[in-house]
Amino acid sequence: MRKSVFRFKFFECSHARASMKIGVDAVLIGAWADTDGARRILDVGTGCGVIALMCAQRNAVAHVTAIDIDADSVDEARINFMASPWSSRLEARLMDFNCISEEKFDLIVSNPPYFDSGVDSPDSPRLVARHQNVLSPAALLENGSRLISPGGRIVIVVPSSRFEELCGVAASVGLKLRRSQFVRGHEAAPVKRVLMEFSESGVSAGLAFMPVLTLETMPGLPSDAHRTLCKDFYLKF
Asked: What's CA 184's distance to the chain center, in Å?
């Protein structure tokens, strides 16, 4: 049985009730996202709130709003926020991202759904959380482009197979790829994930060099690059 409380260096995060449990993708994007200079941060599909907590740890002044469509997830995120050192700057809302229209954010960050179940009406919170009809990476870019402040950024983690598609979606709404980082489990493993950061000003989508983060040098042994990225969070790092 998976532990219901995940302990990091500076906070604990319960994920017993949330629709999506804490995983590698969430921690990677929480550590990789550029939080510098952000005054308002939005975590979309927050689940138990781990990405929002990481952003609050990394940025000492930002107000972090975390939203989800699953009530149990929002309740658990609120509890986790209240128990953290940054409770005054963290807010959890039961809200559909596609319904936000007036607010502006300096950073929008998300570990968006990537699982296409082929089912129109998933019957479990986990499937709802992962189902692309609820919040697709493309929808996040399309709606997010209207919600970022001047100089704002959108940061997502998605399957690497979506890279070119999402660069095209971003271009259609006036966004450019600013940074990217491909991820693989070990040296012999294929690249499966990519971290992507978009803004109104950035480099062209056709980068000559795509950096690759290798997570482990051998089973259970994190690479130096993985340790450097996540050393402020994982206890074992």
From this structure: 17
At residue 131, the pLDDT reads 47
CB-based contacts of 225-234 (< 8 A; 24+ apart in sequence): 229/28, 229/31, 229/32, 230/27, 230/28, 230/31, 232/9, 232/10, 232/31, 232/57, 232/58, 233/8, 233/9, 233/10, 233/27, 233/30, 233/31, 233/54, 233/57, 234/8, 234/9, 234/27
Residues pairing with 43 in the sheet = 66, 109
Give the residue from 122, 100, 119 showing the smallest Cα distance to 44: 100
Provide the greatest CA pair distance for the chain: 48
Two tokens at 6?
Answer: 């995940």
Q: What is the mean pLDDT of residues 88-117?
A: 87
> What residue has token string 């138990």?
48
Residue 116, classed as helix, strand or coil, is coil
pTM of the model: 0.90
